[in-house]
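Intended use. Records like the one below are meant for learning the mapping from a protein sequence to its folded structure. Do not use them to infer anything beyond what is encoded.
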Amino acid sequence: MSRGVFYRQGLPEDSEHFERLMLLSAPRLLPAVFGANASRVLKSLFRHKRNLYSFEHSRFIEVNGKGAGMIISYDWIAQKRERLRTGLLLFKYMKLRLITRLRILFKVNSVLGKVGLNEYYVSNIAVYPEYRGLGLGTELLMRGEDEAKRAGAERIVLDVEANNQDAIRLYSKIGCTPAGKPKRIIIGGDTYTFLRVSKAICSEPAIDAITT
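Structure written out for the chain above:
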């Protein structure tokens, strides 16, 4: 890793960065799913352990001591174990608003976030605009691949919006290929089209060691 670039485990106090980077990764979808309080809900979930938006599943990359990007990812075991708790925490923070958005959540869950046996899911990845073009997105994905291998996963999977050509190029660069046909979600009259891409885990680590 280049001098001045530091990769580390996320911490609860990273919630502000988490919220901003999450909204950069899905600027239309997340507000459509969680509503006007999306920022508050995301930050609250992040600070809790054992849910799919937890700081435990986050890794951050810094440049000269400043937050530059983030990846949220987890294996098939965590997804199965923490799905229910994630729902309970959503109810805690959204309260009655959750009831009005259940149909939307079911739609989204029917398309996104499905994790099969021995799969490692990259939920969200984002780099602040001022740090793009430095290879940090590739670095985050390579680190994610190493973590997937250590978890015993056989495949990395990601869902990406079909019109996000920059992200598709990035995933292609590390060897991800399309898996299945595009799937669509309609929320409030807006259509979101997603591609699933995947990559078989290589036999050797992408990076020898993680800076902590």
